[in-house]
Amino acid sequence: MIQNAPAPSDTRDLPEIASEVLARHAGYVPEWIPADKTAGNGLAWIFARFLQVVVQRLNQAPEKNRLAFFDLLGMGLVPAQSARAPLAFKITPGAADSNAPAATQVAAPPPPGSSDQIVFETEQAAGVMAANLAQVVSLWPGRDEYLDHSAALAANTPVTLFDHLRLQPTQHTLYLAHNTLLALTGSVEIDVEFELTQTSPNPLQLRWEYWDGQVWRGFKGMNPACAGVIEPTLDSTLGLTRSGTFRLQAGCAMAAQTSVNGIQAFWIRGSLTDTLPADPAIVLPQVDRIRLSSFIQQTLNDDDPGNPQSGILPDNALSGATKLDLTKAFYPFDHQPQPGDAFYFSSEEIFAKPGAHVSIAIAKSDTPLEQVTASSTTPLAHEVAWEYWNGTDWVGLAVLDGKKPPADFTGNGLIQFTVPKDMVKTAVN
């Protein structure tokens, strides 16, 4: 506690003391006449000066006694220290980021009436960045709540930190991106496998969602039950209490790319539905590895998956340089096939997924000439080489059923293969 110095017991100065000495001399030495500019008058002023010294010592006695009392209590005076002040660096527009090392000298304006500047030195190194402060947030870990002050900062208005009336639950969200596996269309299943090095002692409920171009849409089992029907949540991790897999399902998904932290991609996210425990002694799960796998099924007629037209039509198909309409019967190698003729077809959705298992359904349609001469004509022997573009050349594609038919288009059946990892886009025609 700081107290003011005690008031002086005697406030007389030197002229006042000298005047009293000269005024009272008649009662003590009446024969002395201290005229101005005489030795007697000078003696009076010398005597007054000695009295002033005594008065000064008496006025300091209370403060001296207080210091002695503090000394008895073991309290001493704080040693003198250099002046300290907070310092803000402001760089000129267009300047690059820099660094101010410790002991950087800065000057303050001179005191009033002085021409000497006061020079200070920084105590520690500091980074000087060209970026401006973009976000200010109050975080209350014990309540797992936060308050964003960024809008007030932009408006240059004062803020109240940790305003408990405006605090909101803190969002805890895990974002995962993959431009191939998470390009969701149609009926999909996604497995998000977690390998944990430290499990959670209590189950943590996650709500999984994907971006559909407008909103974050939940998977099956992630939405509130409708009409009293509770959808099961497929979570073998039991709330991250052990390693396992979240199986995410959607009936008619249509994902779109969005930007998260400046990264444009197909995203899914898992958000905690409850607040984190306030007890810091409760450990949280630690993840060693996350794996994604997806199964996507899309049909042309979702109302009737057993329809013969079920499946996905290629995006484009060419017979040489002629564009084909695959909704009708067509000649893949023109009317009179010759060695070297090529049938091209593409699918952005299928061929952009390395490792996907593909089945191509061949449904042969006989021409009128074949119907008339079927019993008397032997089909010409031919072979179809299945190939894909790997970025530099057309290379052979390993089909799982390369027998005739259907691999040579002479009969009906399925041709199956796995999308190669080195398959890339190319321009045809």
What gap, in angstroms, lies between the N and C termini?
A: 90 Å
So what's the overall shape? rod-shaped
SS-based structural class? Answer: alpha+beta
* Assembly of the depicted chains: single chain
Beta-strand segment tally: 24
Low-confidence stretches: 224-230, 301-308
Largest sheet: 4 strands, antiparallel
Tally of contiguous helical segments: 5
* Strand order, largest beta sheet: 8-16-10-11
Order of helices and strands: HHEEEEEEHEEEEEEEEEEEEEEHEHEEE
Hey, roughly how much beta strand do the residues contain? 25-35%
Supply Rg.
46 Å
> Which whole number gives the mean pLDDT?
83
- Give the % helix: 10-25%
Q: What does this 3D model show about the protein?
A:
With 429 residues, the protein is of the alpha+beta class. 15% of the residues lie in helices and 27% in strands. The chain contains five helices and 24 strands. The chain has helices spanning 14-28, 39-72, 150-154, 348-351, 368-373, and strands spanning 98-100, 105-108, 118-121, 126-128, 137-140, 145-148, 168-169, 173-177, 185-198, 206-211, 216-218, 234-235, 244-254, 258-260, 263-265, 267-272, 286-297, 316-319, 322-323, 343-346, 357-362, 387-389, 394-396, 413-418. A four-stranded antiparallel β-sheet has the order 8-16-10-11, with no helix packed on it. Strand 14 (258-260) and strand 15 (263-265) form a beta hairpin. Helix 1 (14-28) crosses helix 2. Mean pLDDT is 83; it is low at 224-230 and 301-308.
